[in-house]
Amino acid sequence: MIATAVCLLAPPALAVLGSFKPANMLYDADPLPVRPTLANYRVAITDFPIGQLIGSTFVVAAGVMTLQLAVATLAAYAIVRFRTRAGNLLLLGGTAAILVPAQALLVPQFLMISHLGWLNSYTGLIVPQLSGAGVALVLLRQHVRDIPASLIEAAVLDGASSWRTLRHVVLPLLRPALAAVGTLVFINTWNEYLWPLIATPGGSPGTIQTGLALFLNAEGANPGPLLAAATVSALPVLIGYLFTARRVTGAFMHSGIG
Amino acid sequence: MSERARHWPYLAPLLAALLIWVYGPLAGTVVLSFLRWNLTSGPAAFAGLANYRALPLSLAIALWKRPGRAASGYRCLLFIPLVLAPVATAISWQFALNPLQGIVHTMSAAVGVPAPNLLGDPRTALWIIDLITSGKMIALNILLFGAALGAIDPCALEAARIEGATETQVTWHVVIPQVRRTIAALGMLTAVYGGQWSFTSIAVLTQGGPLNSTDNIYYLIYTYGFTYFDIGRAAAASAGTSP
């Protein structure tokens, strides 16, 4: 068990430690930075629009998260509440969509957004990533199903419309699940490399992953600042994950997958 | 509005999203692939996949049988590869494996052998890509196995132990039969995701090289479509990936 963890986590750990080393000591045998310095971070911030990249990646990740949660919550509610054949078919279609590899959709999606004039825009970065909404649907449907039917029936007896029941009964109970699934979608979008690479051939609005890859090509010979930039790019997600780890695992525990 | 029609406002947004952004493009891929389908003349495409399944299952069972602080801390650590930005991960591996200066160089120097160029050698490059991808796979599998194991009634284990079953017997005869469906489902998920998730590592670290040794079908689609701008051929390769 420990060997697995060491083997998989050693390179990232070395990279974080290395980012604090001065350039001439970067490859010293001692993995710890003996004379820690922030010089690499200074270079990374001045040579590399890291603040701007983090800002635009945040917009994209938040946009994808909001859209996916919205469409998946509405559908999950209707599937559980009305139990119609259309709902079941949609659940099946959403589950099957999880298995379709993103690369299989790449070419037509690219042609679509270029016809729509969405290349190099936030719209083009965000809207096509709705294709990942299947996971959110499967996870949220399970949580909606866990809500006691008596609560919903009580609201219906009180004369509440289906929309009011959703807003005032289902949504408040669903909040922890929405937070967990939202975190998952946010992290996945933050880490997405392929779609931004395709959708922004002009390199703007740049996301942190494609920016980092460009920085790698430009500064390959200068690894210190590169390691610093890589550390900064991973940090927001890592911190977010550590705070929500239990909720995210909990969402899967309830998913009934398997 | 009739009771039957009332579900449409709720279902329509997701339905539209899936039709426009998943099933439409999927159909498009199939159609485009007929425009030109001499993929057979291309380089051999394969998804470099090791068998990731046995390890996460044994880890997940071990973690689940002994709950406590150490287990949850360890689980937290194992999930890090799953959430760590893939480009940053690739950069860190490149740093560690640099044959001229990295940690591999230092270690080989200490033993007195010349440092291997693990990413530059066609015989080892694919193994490195596999190793990085399996880090993520192990995390995902443990997460989902953990979910399946959580549903097992602990009383069944207690009963088996009281009757004198050894821990190995408990694992094989009580735990495994109950998660068999999950094992099958995860096998499929691993096969589907493994090739896809290696994409970033391949794009950043090797670009399919050396000598096409780390090329896989997903990277091939990308190079055909967006480096050579041969959309028909890219679509033909894509159509081959859909289960």
Describe the fold and architecture.
The complex is a heterodimer of chains A (258) and B (243). Chain A has 258 residues and is mainly alpha-helical. Chain A has one domain (37-253): MetI-like fold (Orthogonal Bundle). Helix content of chain A is 75%, strand content 0%. Chain A has 12 helices and no strands. In chain A, helix 2 (39-47) packs across helix 12. The longest helix of chain A has 33 residues, at 50-82. The radius of gyration of chain A is 22 Å and the shape is elongated. The two termini of chain A are 24 Å apart. By secondary structure, chain B is mainly alpha-helical. Chain B has a domain at 46-215: MetI-like (MetI-like fold). In chain B, 70% of the residues lie in helices and 0% in strands. Chain B is built from 11 helices and no strands. Chain B has helices at residues 8-35, 54-65, 69-83, 86-97, 103-111, 125-150, 154-162, 167-178, 180-206, 217-227, 231-239. Chain B is flat and about 65 Å long. Chain B starts with 7 loop residues before the first helix and ends with a helix.
The CATH superfamily label of chain A reads: MetI-like
Count of DSSP H/I helices of chain A: 12
- Tell me the CATH superfamily of the domain at 46-215 in chain B: MetI-like
Summed over residues and divided by their number, the pLDDT of chain B gives a mean of 71
In percent, how helical is the residue content of chain B? 55-70%
Please report the distance between the alpha carbons of the first and last residues of chain A: 24 Å
Summary, kept brief:
Chain A is mainly alpha-helical and 258 residues long.
Topology (elements, then pairings):
The complex is a heterodimer of chains A (258) and B (243).
Chain A lengths: L1 H17 L20 H9 L2 H33 L2 H14 L3 H14 L6 H5 L6 H14 L2 H9 L4 H29 L3 H6 L8 H12 L3 H31 L5
Chain B lengths: L7 H28 L18 H12 L3 H15 L2 H12 L5 H9 L13 H26 L3 H9 L4 H12 L1 H27 L10 H11 L3 H9 L4
